[in-house]
Amino acid sequence: MATLLVLYSPPADTAKFDAHYQNTHIPLARKMPGMRSFTVTSGQPRAFAGSAPYLVAQLQFDSMASLEAALASPEGQAAVGDLPNFAQAGVTVLAYETSGV
Predict the structure, then answer these.
(1) In contact, 25 and 87? CB cutoff 8 Å
(2) Tens of pLDDT along 50-70?
(3) What SS3 string covers the chain?
(4) Domains located in the chain, CATH noted
(5) Residue 17: Cβ within 10 Å count
(6) How many Å apart are CA 9 and CA 11, to the nearest integer?
(7) Burial tier of 7 (Cβ tally within 10 Å: 0-12, 13-18, 19+)
(8) pTM for this one?
């Protein structure tokens, strides 16, 4: 299993961020091929160390290869290309493989 973890920094205008994220970005991201699940935090996460992001999105794929293929697809490129339209405060995007422990 592979995960794409997206951490959005707190925006200056949360209402504008939320409207664009819900109405434009999520529909774009949901079109990425091979995605198994897409979850988003409900409310701002709490940080027990460091600083908390405004929002966290987690996208699951079968493998790192399928994650990379999704990002390289036209749908993935549209979602990545949309980030500057609403995430001006900054965004951290991490990709990693997961295993049961």
Answers:
(1) no
(2) 999 999 999 999 999 999 999
(3) CEEEEEEECCCCCHHHHHHHHHHHHHHHHCCCCCEEEEEECCCCCCCCCCCCCCEEEEEEECCHHHHHHHHHCHHHHHHHHHHHHCCCCCEEEEEEECCCC
(4) 2-97 (3.30.70.100)
(5) 21
(6) 6
(7) middle
(8) 0.93
For 13-50, the pLDDT digits (tens) are 999 999 999 999 999 999 999 999 999 999 889 999 99
Q: What are the backbone angles phi and psi of residue 91, rounded to the nearest 5°?
A: -150, 140
Tracing tokens 């790192």 back to the chain, one arrives at 64
Distance of CA 10 to the CA centre of its chain: 14
Distance (Å) of CA 87 to CA 37, 55, 66, 81: 22, 11, 25, 11
Give CA separation, 85 vs 57, 79, 81, 88, 99, in Å.
17, 10, 8, 7, 34
Beta-bridge partners for 87: none
